[in-house]
Amino acid sequence: MTTPSATSVPTVKLLIDGKFVESTTSEWMDVTNPATQEVLARVPMATAYELSAAVSSARAAFKTWRKTSIGTRARIFLRYQQLIRDNMAELAAILTAEQGKTLPDAEGDVFRGLEVVEHAASIGNLQLGEFANNVAAGVDTYTLMQPLGVCAGITPFNFPAMIPLWMFPMAIATGNTFVLKPSEQDPMVTMRLVELAMEAGIPPGVLNVVHGGKDVVNGICDHPDIKAVSFVGSTAVGTHVYNRATGTGKRAQCMMGAKNHMVVLPDADKEQTLNALAGSAFGAAGQRCMAIPVVVLVGESQTWLGELVERAKTLKVNAGHEPGTDIGPLISRAALDRVHRLVESGESEGARLELDGRKPAVPGYEDGNFFGPTVFSQVNTEMSIYREEIFGPVLCVLHAATLDEAIELVNANPNGNGTAIFTRSGAAARHFQEEIDVGQVGINVPIPVPVPLFSFTGSRGSKLGDLGPYGKQVIQFYTQTKTVTSRWFGEDDVGGVNTTITLK
């Protein structure tokens, strides 16, 4: 921990009641460029008082925001999506500097969040209730989808633009107010997106931001005025958040760890499959919850291993802003150390290291957190490199004799975030999609993250809570359904006493 006066680097502000304010905390963390170790900013660990002030601001703003017309809310997000488009290059540059991913990947990060903002602008069609006329004589029944109140979001380091944009636009568009806690490792692009949201017209108090670690997370889970919590991150933290938040009566949706498998059948198009596999296994330095860290080569596709390794060797490791970079640095020294430890465990536990990505040469960036593409063969399901989420550019290669054997292997893994099959056989693809027990399935698509018309649907050990973070499901998550049954009598209507529960 450091103090904000240690150097002249800027400090990351809090957003409370429409104002960007300096934290009064004594605890600060450095935000560093993972390619150079340059300190870009310092982020505060917000105090309990500051969290309380943010929630109080959101609670007060809810009284008027919940009654704001759908048209007004929609127009704010129409303006917001245009502001994001206009500032795309700046947002990507900030993201690359603090997170490390390549500039094209950073733009993709922003763009996938932008798609959710565009969806939020359609709130007039999304937040429709139901109506039934004359369910009994002169009686109508209808539903209202009403906002909950103050909601909160806790977001991870690996998608500092996309995942915040999964959360607060949909919550606010449905009439709630919001308290956001970005990752303390790379909050700068999130804060720039928040500035643009305020510029788009989000009123004071409707969106608030606090920074911090465990204490702030626990404060969000415990605060009695917060009605719902959205989380994306590790399984350990997500399980803690879900149990603590629901234990205090909140709604919670927690998208957590993964160990996604790609199943390759021998009839697949080899070139397309190998390109897709290399991109999904090593892109973003493997720091995606929907990355492919495991490939199951079925039957004769096992002979493709050598070509896969050669494909991986062609990927360029460098700072994310350098032209032609395929793989940028890992987020931190701790992340780099973790990947090193797991690769060493793979060797010691008997896997065969086909390609070693440790300590790649990156001229001019010798202090960067770089790790090159790494491939293990002869992996079994008892090894640490298979059981643990590595979150680095490391691919485990397993073999299966048949498609059914591959399906059994995937279903035996405790995680259920995403999976993919590559094949030319429609029958095989249909059999796979029916039998696989995973939330999101790709058919010749390596990373099957759905567009916002649909919901993110991870399952089993990768998700706690019934409803996904965007799409139709998130409208249900951020609203309370109220059912109204009404009857209006005419002036001449006269009825007797009815002692039954039926309407007549």
TrEMBL record:
Keywords: NAD, Oxidoreductase
Name of the top EC class for this enzyme: oxidoreductase
GO molecular function: methylmalonate-semialdehyde dehydrogenase (acylating, NAD) activity
Pfam families cross-referenced by the UniProt entry: Aldedh
EC number: 1.2.1.27
Start and end residues of each Aldehyde dehydrogenase domain: 20-484
Coiled-coil residue spans: none
GO biological process: L-valine catabolic process; thymine catabolic process
InterPro entries in alphabetical order: Ald_DH/histidinol_DH, Ald_DH_C, Ald_DH_N, Aldehyde_DH_dom, MeMal-semiAld_DH
Family classification: Belongs to the aldehyde dehydrogenase family.
Protein name: methylmalonate-semialdehyde dehydrogenase (CoA acylating)
Organism of origin: Hydrocarboniclastica marina
